[in-house]
Design brief:
The complex is a heterodimer of chains A (101) and B (145). By secondary structure, chain A is of the alpha+beta class. Helix content of chain A is 25%, strand content 28%. Chain A has a domain of 66 residues. Chain B has 145 residues and is mainly α. Chain B has one domain. Chain B is built from 5 helices and no strands. In chain B, helix 1 packs across helix 2 and helix 2 packs across helix 3. The relative contact order of chain B is 0.17. Classes of the chains: A alpha+beta (101), B mainly alpha (145). At the A-B interface, helix 1, strand 2 and helix 2 of A face helix 1, helix 2 and helix 3 of B.
């Protein structure tokens, strides 16, 4: 009986947690993410190729430092990689600058 | 006296049980309600892109099956073993992909998809450890006749 309650509590917690993540609109489009030079906004080269729908710095690395990343439709190079194509998304976390999303 | 010494194992097994049920039901719910997206993401994966829908449904079914096993008192041991097998499969695939492919799409359910692949790998290993711990403590918590 106790174990059934533990199971039910776990499922309830999972449903509650899911309500937060399912609230976001699903983004089917995925981009290649590159760091942007804060002053100019130009994409810098990267040793890592990150291809996903959301900004990797904000979400992936739980960064405590300010960041600026751009999502591109393509890339060139084999490491380091260079941004290529259209810049479709900019994400940053600098104080006093409203979010670009 | 014997029952008393088994109590810590029981608590440990219950904690592992709680964590694994939370993980699998959370990821299953997110995949199920975002099936279109999950299918799309699977179609980007090497090897899995041929039949994304059956693979998506199999993964969701396996996760729900594990939750059911872990919630059935007489099937908890099997549940821990099944959880360990599924996590091992995910981890092996992830390891192979990380070693052979530089361009991996982002997937998994809910907030977990925000993790980078190395972070995901660490999380998988952590939950594999939890499954092993649960399996061992569950075995020790069962009184021998």
């Amino acid at each position: 009986m106790k174990r059934k309650l533990i199971g039910l509590a776990a499922v309830t917690l999972a449903i509650w947690l899911s309500s937060f993540s399912l609230r976001h609109d699903s983004k089917l489009a995925q981009y290649y993410w590159f760091p942007l030079e804060p002053g100019t906004g130009f994409a810098e080269s990267s040793q890592f190729l990150i291809y996903q729908s959301g900004c990797p710095t904000y979400c992936g690395n739980f960064s405590f430092m300010p960041y600026c990343e751009g999502g591109y439709t393509g890339y060139t190079g084999t490491g380091p990689y260079y941004a290529y194509g259209i810049e479709v998304w900019v994400e940053h976390d600098y104080p006093n600058i409203p979010s670009a999303r | 006296m014997k029952t008393l010494s088994m109590k810590p194992y029981r608590y440990l097994a219950n904690t592992c049980l709680f964590l694994l049920i939370t993980l699998f039901s959370y990821t299953a719910i997110n995949k199920l309600f975002g099936l279109t997206r999950f299918r799309f993401q699977l179609s980007l994966f090497p090897w899995l892109r041929v039949h994304p829908l059956p693979i998506a449904l199999t993964i969701i079914g396996a996760e729900i099956g594990i939750v059911v096993l872990l919630m059935t008192p007489r099937r908890i041991l099997i549940g821990f073993i099944a959880a360990l097998i599924l996590l091992s499969l995910f981890t092996t695939y992830l390891l192979i992909m990380l070693l052979t492919t530089s361009n991996l799409p982002c997937t998994c359910g809910g907030v977990l998809e925000q993790l980078s692949w190395p972070q995901h790998l660490v999380l998988n290993l952590l939950f594999m450890g939890i499954a092993i711990l649960g399996l061992v403590s569950e075995k020790f918590s069962i009184p021998h006749k």
